[in-house]
Amino acid sequence: YGSSSTFCCFSLAMAEQCLRGEELRARHQAALLELRKKALQEKARAELAWLGHQKRCLESLQDSEGASATATKQCKILTELKQEQAEIQHLQNIYRAAHQERKLLLKQQREILRMQHSTARLQEKLHNMTG
């Protein structure tokens, strides 16, 4: 059983190493999503400020058609921002679920290794008793 035990420990170590790598990539991805979220908000804020300025100028010139078109653009920007934020939230939820799955996988791998060690000890005791 020794070589099998060594293989199981190696397998567990490999699984842990892979999971650590996955967690590192997930943290990087989460950081990138946060940066994307902030960049989108800043971009939308700047575009809305610019459109707000344009709208005020058009209103002062009594160009209601231009002001209305500007208001429509503002609504479009807000809609796009909400869609992008929903997409980012969806990705964050996916990464969170993947993190939970990785933790569960490692827990199951450890439990399997524990059961294999326990079985091997029992087999050894049985062998010693019959031998």
Report on this structure.
The chain has 131 residues and is an all-alpha fold. It has a single domain, classed as Helix Hairpins, CATH 1.10.287. The chain is 96% helix and 0% strand. It has two helices and no strands.
Which characteristics define this entry?
131 residues, 2 helices
Number of strand elements: 0
Secondary structure class reads mainly alpha
CATH architectural label: Orthogonal Bundle
Tell me the distance between the termini: 17 Å
Instruction: Predict the CATH topology.
Output: Helix Hairpins
State the major sheet. Answer: none
Radius of gyration: 29 Å
- What percent strand? under 5%
Number of domains: 1
Q: How do the SSEs run, as a string of H and E? A: HH
Number of helical runs?
A: 2
The parts where pLDDT drops under 50 for at least 5 residues are none
Mean pLDDT: 87
Percent helix, as a range, is over 70%
The CATH top-level class label:
Mainly Alpha
Structural shape: rod-shaped
Compact description:
This is Centrosome-associated protein 350. With 131 residues, the protein is an all-alpha fold.
In terms of topology, how is this protein built?
Blueprint: H1 2-60, H2 64-130
